Give the backbone structure.
Amino acid sequence: MRAWPKPLPRRKPDPIPPIVPLPERLAEGRRKALYEDTKAVLHVPWMGVVTMAFAHYPQFYEALWAGVRPLCASAPFITACEELGRAAQTAAASLKPNPIGPRLRAMGYDDSELSDISAVIDIFSHGNMPYVLIATLARLVLEGHPLSTDTEAPPPATPRNLKPSSALLLIERHHGNAELGSLYDHIEATLGLPFVNTDYRALARWPTYLSVAFADLAPHVPTRAYDAAVDAVHADAVRLACALPNPGQLNTHDLTAAAAADGATDQIRDTVALFQWLLPGLVTNMAFFEAQLAQSQ
């Protein structure tokens, strides 16, 4: 039996809860093992800030990952990720992004460099979708929405033998100069967040590119058209999450008990809501960047 989609408006907690993700390079022991297992099952080369923030609460993340892990390895989950990716592309196209290639070439970028940038965007365009669905499932469950009672989740018809791509090169604030710091400040202020997501830090390998690309995106962010585009991605994420089977039998009782065991039930609930609020915007932004380059070919 499938769960029917429930009203789940986007909700940005106010105030924003403290976000304390543990970087992959510092993870040890059980947490490192969970990080590696998460990346392997999702077939992604990075541990998203969302899951690192969730993993700050060990009991909660253990329960969440145990509940979603069987689903994440299934054919229905892969199909849902693909559908959500198409929704993000449609949302970004509605904003009519301008081609960026000619401007970058005028700055000195060649086709090889543009191809490298496009490859990094492609990693996020595909890899962010599992994180969106996981955050959506976590919020649904924490807020008492029942998931499907269907526990059948067949594996992909063709086994996925893909190895995650090599680790991403992330440019942290302390790696750059004042100009990079100002760019990161601009991204945070524009998006209303106290941190810079992995996507932007990976693209900051080409800081002049990221500056131009984000300058095109930024004027859209405060508009009704942008809100409508992101809301559409959010609604699709909720619909898809509710339609998925639940082989790990993720449920409200177990997840809230785990959050209580960490002694941070309200903080965890707000952390989940924050990421479930921001991720539809993040995937729309990445699709916007993808369209900027695609129109330049």
Summary: The chain has a mean pLDDT of 92. The first helix runs from residue 29 to 42. The radius of gyration is 19 Å.
